[in-house]
Amino acid sequence: MASFQLLLSAGDIELNPGPDSDSSSQQKNKQQRTSRSFSRICTECQKTVRKNQKRFVCDVCKDFIHASCLGVAYTNNLNSSQPQCWTCHKCVLSKLPFYGHDILEIISVNSLTSDNDNDTHLNILSKHVQHLKIMHINTRSMVSTFDHLCLMIERYAFDIITMSETWLKENNLLLQHVTIPGYVHAFNNRDKIRGGGVGIYIKESIKFKRRQDLKKRYPTMEHLWIEISGRNRYSKLLLGTIYRSDAILPYTTWLEYFNDLLSDLSVQWDGMLAVTGD
């Protein structure tokens, strides 16, 4: 026992003898294996993404996800030998001006008259003057909340305001009442059933066209789309606002239509896509 301790202290033998190796190299290889293993885990189902599976890889953070977990409807056309490029929702959100902040709530009339220096939302907007500022609001009757909406727009000067539950009808006098100076509006109103309806206000300085073809393709859904032109695919925008109501479509049927709509847009539209609503 004494000789064993002497040899050990001299460094001639080890408790677990084996082939010599560089410990730093082993640690590096272990980290690389761990990194490769982690990057091949589907961020949705947490299962391994194999080479023979149809898959997507985020072009920003390099995370993987199964095509089936992403809910892509046209998986038969995908090549399983190579991952498809895509941007995950986390990376998309991280580029938005309000990422990490509380969502803008509907502010009371009293708070609209507060000092500018103490208005957190106004301070956030003032830091992103070059960004396109879009707000969505559930108005629950444009007629009853119109004055409040005008005060909010006057203070925050959003470029585009999308709305659901406008509760409007195809009445010229009524539509004139909800006109806001400096903005162009577009509405999709219900004909017979009370409530519902969607609408958009767009600043007059923004050139756009209404995409009636998308409404005609899915006529039973309550939705409205506009296309804002740009210099390239990174500056043109297709913006839609949608309202779901059981009075129009059952939940499962609506989800099927919505999935089909997004699948069509992902194939046919090569610019930025934004969807608002509730």
From TrEMBL:
One Pfam assignment: Exo_endo_phos
Family annotation (PROSITE patterns): ZF_PHD_2
Entry-linked Gene3D superfamilies: Endonuclease/exonuclease/phosphatase (3.60.10.10), Zinc/RING finger domain, C3HC4 (zinc finger) (3.30.40.10)
Any GO molecular function: RNA-directed DNA polymerase activity
UniProt-annotated stretches for the region Disordered: 12-35
Keyword annotations: Metal-binding, Nucleotidyltransferase, RNA-directed DNA polymerase, Transferase, Zinc, Zinc-finger
Record's compositionally biased regions (Low complexity): 20-35
SUPFAM superfamilies: DNase I-like, FYVE/PHD zinc finger
The protein's name: RNA-directed DNA polymerase from mobile element jockey
Originating organism: Paramuricea clavata (Red gorgonian)
